Recover the amino acids of this structure.
């Protein structure tokens, strides 16, 4: 039945709709109430090894790489370990220095992406500790790792990823909580995060209920030739993923920028013909976000905001309101409207949504 459209017009839409259950499966059996933390059975690393880690290096390609960027922010904020993500397709060719105190994490839905596999093989050959965050059980990348986390998203048929992206971010949130709780994260913060994780499926379902409004915004966006996606700090990987999704399925040219970088160049592009999709959580950077929106408005750039209910309505032409969660998890919820936006823009433009031109589900050749 997973390979069946089940009444939907496209697998992408079906898989976007499956996210509440996919997230539920990802966290199921992994919450440890008693110690305000999570249990990750597949890591194959003892707490004292995990405590010795000085840096986390995350590798993946495309959307898997962007989900790794979400993961890097989660690990830095909750575990206070420096963490970065890099495209595996670059990493494998640049003869990197292997960090003896580092933990390497390969991210892949299929577990078969050639560039990611090559990066893992190179790391393993050089003695690095590599974990995987993988969907396909028993896949090549899963087999070449020292251990890791299966995301249990279920089969993903659409070439464009949706539920695997979300579930990977959830798996990183769990890893970050785990690494945090064996270091400095307090039991109260552990509880705060596990409660928020538990509430994610219902909140994702509530966002899916706003489909009509998102479809309307997508129809509007589909009328432009270009779009800019912006986000700040933890919102930036989502801007990248949102731009990627709309390029992939709607063939609409889109670029993602860190909001604060606009004034260093791309602000020159802002005009009535350049819509801006802005990821603007009401978090510790809310004031900065609002001033960016003012700068765009002053140049007549039309804005579609993905925001919390507190965003003043006059700051954006259109706003999709997303439920609140803990700020660290905002990107997970804010990405859901971006998926529907890409889907409905592609539909409005009559694209081949499940099999976009020139793309393959998993890139197993160079
Ligand atoms: C996402 O929509 C794309 N299909 C693509 O960027 C994908 O995430 C990338 O090719 C990596 O695939 P993997 O997760 O199977 O390794």
């Amino acid at each position: 039945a997973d390979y069946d459209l089940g009444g939907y017009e496209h697998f992408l839409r079906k898989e976007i709709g499956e996210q509440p259950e996919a997230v539920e499966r990802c966290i199921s059996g992994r919450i440890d109430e008693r110690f305000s933390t999570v249990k990750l059975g597949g890591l194959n690393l003892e707490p004292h090894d995990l405590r010795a880690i000085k840096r986390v290096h995350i590798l993946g390609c495309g959307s898997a790489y962007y989900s790794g960027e979400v993961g890097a922010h989660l690990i830095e904020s909750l575990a206070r370990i420096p963490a970065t993500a890099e495209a595996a397709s670059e990493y494998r060719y640049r003869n990197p220095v292997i960090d003896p105190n580092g933990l390497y994490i390969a991210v892949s839905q299929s577990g078969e992406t050639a560039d990611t596999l090559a990066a893992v093989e190179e790391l393993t050959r050089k003695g690095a500790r590599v974990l995987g965050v993988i969907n396909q059980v028993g896949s090549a990348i899963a087999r070449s790792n020292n251990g890791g986390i299966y995301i249990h998203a279920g089969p993903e048929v659409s070439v464009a990823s949706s539920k695997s992206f979300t579930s990977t971010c959830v798996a990183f949130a769990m890893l970050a909580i785990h690494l945090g709780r064996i270091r400095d994260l307090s039991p109260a913060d552990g509880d705060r995060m596990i409660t928020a994780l538990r509430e994610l499926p219902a909140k994702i379902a509530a966002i899916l209920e706003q489909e009509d409004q998102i479809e309307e915004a997508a129809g509007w966006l589909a009328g432009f030739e270009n779009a800019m996606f912006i986000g700040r700090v933890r919102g930036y990987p989502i801007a990248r993923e949102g731009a990627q999704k709309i390029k992939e399925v709607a063939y609409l040219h889109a670029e993602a920028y860190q909001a604060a970088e606009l004034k260093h160049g791309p602000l020159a592009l802002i005009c009535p013909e350049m819509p801006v999709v802005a990821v603007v959580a009401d978090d510790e950077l809310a004031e900065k976000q609002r001033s960016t929106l003012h700068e765009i408005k002053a140049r007549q750039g039309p804005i579609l905001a993905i925001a919390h209910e507190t965003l003043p309505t006059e700051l954006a032409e259109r706003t999709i309101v997303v439920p609140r969660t803990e700020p660290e998890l905002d990107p997970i919820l804010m990405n859901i409207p971006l998926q529907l936006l890409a889907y409905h823009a592609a539909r409005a433009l009559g694209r081949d949504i499940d099999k976009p031109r020139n793309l393959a589900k998993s890139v197993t050749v160079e």
